[in-house]
């Protein structure tokens, strides 16, 4: 293996931003800050979602709304949702029973002609 071209592989402290859980693993990733963990300073890498907070692993449904995108979607398409969803419009009075549409006369079918021979 060539020396000097591979990143260093070291212990890193991963922190789940949504649940606050921490774990130590080996990685080539680097963090901007360090934190003491069991007597050694480790670089900290923050992750948005991990197995501690992902709905598939936790069995809980959770919305991760970044920059109000869910609210904007609900307002735009008038979708019912969480507490921040736009209120649905009031139901209109039921319309009187509409008269059944008249069936239009079907166009007469073309008579079956002789098949052209080639």
TrEMBL record:
<comment type="subunit">
    <text>Part of the 50S ribosomal subunit.</text>
</comment>
<dbReference type="InterPro" id="IPR027493">
    <property type="entry name" value="Ribosomal_bL31_B"/>
</dbReference>
<keyword id="KW-0689">Ribosomal protein</keyword>
<protein>
    <recommendedName>
        <fullName>50S ribosomal protein L31</fullName>
    </recommendedName>
</protein>
<feature type="region of interest" description="Disordered">
    <location>
        <begin position="80"/>
        <end position="118"/>
    </location>
</feature>
<feature type="compositionally biased region" description="Low complexity">
    <location>
        <begin position="80"/>
        <end position="112"/>
    </location>
</feature>
<dbReference type="Pfam" id="PF01197">
    <property type="entry name" value="Ribosomal_L31"/>
</dbReference>
<comment type="similarity">
    <text>Belongs to the bacterial ribosomal protein bL31 family. Type B subfamily.</text>
</comment>
<dbReference type="InterPro" id="IPR034704">
    <property type="entry name" value="Ribosomal_bL28/bL31-like_sf"/>
</dbReference>
<keyword id="KW-0687">Ribonucleoprotein</keyword>
<dbReference type="GO" id="GO:0005840">
    <property type="term" value="C:ribosome"/>
</dbReference>
<dbReference type="InterPro" id="IPR002150">
    <property type="entry name" value="Ribosomal_bL31"/>
</dbReference>
<dbReference type="InterPro" id="IPR042105">
    <property type="entry name" value="Ribosomal_bL31_sf"/>
</dbReference>
């Amino acid at each position: 293996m060539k020396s000097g071209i591979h990143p260093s592989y070291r212990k890193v402290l991963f922190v789940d931003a949504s649940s606050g859980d921490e774990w130590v693993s080996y990685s080539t990733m680097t963090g901007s800050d360090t934190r003491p963990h069991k007597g050694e300073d480790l670089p900290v890498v923050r992750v948005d979602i991990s197995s501690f907070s992902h709905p598939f692993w936790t069995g809980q449904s959770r919305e991760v709304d970044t920059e109000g995108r869910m609210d904007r979607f609900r307002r735009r398409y008038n979708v019912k949702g969480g507490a921040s969803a736009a209120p649905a419009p009031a139901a209109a009075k039921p319309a009187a029973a509409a008269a059944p549409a008249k069936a239009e006369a079907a166009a007469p079918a073309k008579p079956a002609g002789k098949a052209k021979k080639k």
